[in-house]
Amino acid sequence: MFDGPASVGSLLRAAPPDRLPEVTAEHLRARYAADRVEVLLADLSLNALVPVLDPEGPVGGPVEQRCFGSQLPINDPRPDGPARLLLPLTVWGDRLGVLSLETEQPATRELTADLAALAGELAMALRTADRDTDRYHKVRRRQRLTMAAELQWDLLPGRSLNGERFRLAGALEPAYAVYGDHYDWSITGDRLTITVLNGHGDGIEASLLTTVAVNAMRNARRSGAGIVEQGELASDAVYSRHGGNAYVATLLLEVGLTDGAVEAVDAGSPKAMVAHDGDIRPITLDQQLPLGMFGDNRYETQKFQLEPGDRLLVASDGVHAAAPGGRPAYGTSSLLTALRRTRLQPPSEAVGTVIRSLREYHDGLDAEDDAVIVCLDWLR
């Protein structure tokens, strides 16, 4: 018999990528006398937790949502039945879903810790398996994606990322029909690179435009280039394809995680602001030309400083410039109101709060643009 989370890791590595939930459930039944095991994955809009083992079963309720939001194990006691435990499925801060099970064993601290470690092994395996099976992709989508959205979701790095000195999250809206807005990030050593993009136009052409820009910047970054060279290579790539008829408004940031120093290349419409103890101030940067507008775009960095406890927020123009029905732009005051409501929330929850507030601001009207918001807490 296999015992403990380490053995589960071995079992999962040996399992076919589309059978990870079943292998986990079998281990839980054999090792922990578990029953009613279910793996629930968050849908693309993070509005529902969808069952994998029983696709016809109910979506996650308030307790499952509380586990997903708090990222803490929950013991949901039953007065006339076995204990029900819920464990978050998370990889480096990226929230995938919730593992739910019932067991006759007492829900001790040791048992909960073992099951939380097991859930971590399953989360890592699920994230890796996405490259080789469509099963989990199918579960996470509640409706069919547009082709543009399919391209964008495959291009994203993830939805959250945590490290020793930072917490980071991004949100993309509308989840099932996004066009040219996008975000990207990467951490190497004590440097965190964040990019927010707004591709010109709409539909699949905007998505293809953003795809070219993102991959050009990744190519430069992975060759050791800084954000200036990343922006210039992407600009050249976009111009060579579109001749200045299409472009990508972009904000590139490189954050020093040891000292909070930020270098920025502002090449378009995404806006940055910093929140600290309830005070929110815009980051004023000299705007340079969007990527691909001209054939010889060259860029310079600007600098600003984060202080311990600062929250850095970046919003695309689909957020700050949204003006549904001729109303004042969302960024005029409503965005600041929404941001203040997020003060006690982690970034992974804060971006969702802003997106929900933006939806409410539209008051039933269709959005004219897609939207991105990225939130970084620098902890030092």
Q: How would you summarize this macromolecular structure in one to three sentences?
A:
The protein has 380 residues and is α+β, with helices and mostly antiparallel strands.
What features would you describe in this structure?
It contains eleven helices and 16 strands. The chain has about 375 residues and is α+β, with helices and mostly antiparallel strands. A hairpin with a 2-residue loop joins strand 8 and strand 9. The chain has two domains: about 140 residues, 2-Layer Sandwich (Beta-Lactamase), CATH 3.30.450; about 230 residues, Phosphatase 2c, domain 1, CATH 3.60.40. Strands 6-7-16-15-12-13 form a six-stranded antiparallel β-sheet.
State the shape.
globular
Name of the CATH homologous superfamily of the largest domain: PPM-type phosphatase domain
CATH architecture grouping of the largest domain: 4-Layer Sandwich
Q: Please count the beta strands (DSSP E, at least 2 residues each).
A: 16
The N- and C-terminal alpha carbons lie at a distance of: 44 Å
What is the helix/strand order? HHEEHEEEHHHEEEEHHEEEEEEHHHE
| CATH-defined fold name of the largest domain | Phosphatase 2c, domain 1
Domain PPM-type phosphatase: 168-378
EC number: 3.1.3.16
InterPro entries: Bact_Sigma-Reg, PPM-type-like_dom_sf, PPM-type_phosphatase-like_dom
Keywords: Hydrolase
Output the keywords.
Phosphatase 2c, domain 1; 380 residues; 16 strands; Beta-Lactamase; alpha+beta; five-stranded antiparallel sheet
